[in-house]
Amino acid sequence: MCDDARARAFGRVAAICPRACVARAYVERRSARRELCGRRVVRYLGKPTLRLACRGFSSLQYPQRGTTSARPAIMPAKGPCTGKPLIEWCAENGERGDKLLEEYCDPDEGAAEVAKGSNYRALWKCSSEGCGHEWRAQVGSRTRGERTIGCPKCTRGYQNKVTPTDNFLAWCAQNGRRGAELLREYRDPKKLPDEVKKASTYKALWKCAKCKHRWRKMMYIRTKRVRPTGCPQCSLAVRKKHRKQE
Fold it and tell me: Residue 151's pLDDT band (boundaries 50, 70, 90)?
């Protein structure tokens, strides 16, 4: 990068960064590697990333070609605010630490190079048998507190899992007259009432007890407390009746 281009780039970055030393160091570092120049500095990074650099993030790490990183990852300094390296934290936290260390499979940063409270979006691979799902999540979100973030695929499977006490049939038995009416209208040939959850997004087949009309509607729309839907044919007839009366 020539001196004029470096000066223009510094001017654009300094206009965003209150700390001119951070902006100057960034421009000098990128110009030495000849990766960005001129106006592309601001367009590649964007203003939010540069603001984070001014708030104490000592290094900005960018994905290499051929990796699965979709956007620049911000790597904070290893200090009191982020804690010890992830590999040391895992060694001190028994079974939970062993599981996280087993699932950590980031190709760009090793477990010894990233802090346990970092907001770096690392690559993880689920260790559950038969899953093997890969996803990206912040390191700090997996080590912070008791309720940590796990595999999103396994989480969705657990939420949709039907149990003997958590299904549509059990819900109908607990909701009296309304539950009895919905159970009488349920006519889906693929799933029985005890094989689907009441809050599921599954489009079940329903048959109106009055007009015998058949239609498909998601389970949660018919079982929700606020403004649940009924037979569309009957609703249309009621609306036409009101229009004639008006």
Answer: confident
- Distance, in Å, from the CA atom of 94 to the CA atom of 86, rounded to the nearest integer, reads 13
Domain spans of the chain? 3-55, 86-149, 168-245
User: Residue 157 — very low, low, confident or very high, per pLDDT cuts 50/70/90?
Assistant: low
pLDDT per residue over 61-100, tens digit each? 444 444 444 444 434 433 334 678 998 999 998 888 898 9
Checking 2-11 for CB contacts under 8 A at 24+ apart, the result is 5/31, 5/37, 5/38, 6/31, 8/38, 8/39, 9/36, 9/37, 9/38, 9/39, 9/41
What is the rounded distance in angstroms from the CA atom of residue 233 to the CA atom of residue 211? 8
Question: For the whole model, what pTM was predicted?
Answer: 0.41
> Which region, left, alpha or beta, applies to residue 42 given φ > 0 means left and ψ of -120 to 50 means alpha?
alpha
Q: Compute the chain's Rg from CA coordinates.
A: 28
Least confident of 117-121, 146-150, 174-178, 203-207: 146-150
Question: How many Cβ atoms sit within 10 Å of the Cβ of residue 21?
Answer: 10
Cα–Cα distance for residue pair 223/230, rounded to 1 Å = 10
**And the tokens for 167?**
């299904």
| Token couple for 191 | 């799933």
Angle ∠(242,182,216) on CA atoms, nearest 5: 75
Spatial separation of the C-alpha atoms in residues 120 and 114, rounded to whole Å = 8
Distance CA 237, CA 112 (A): 68
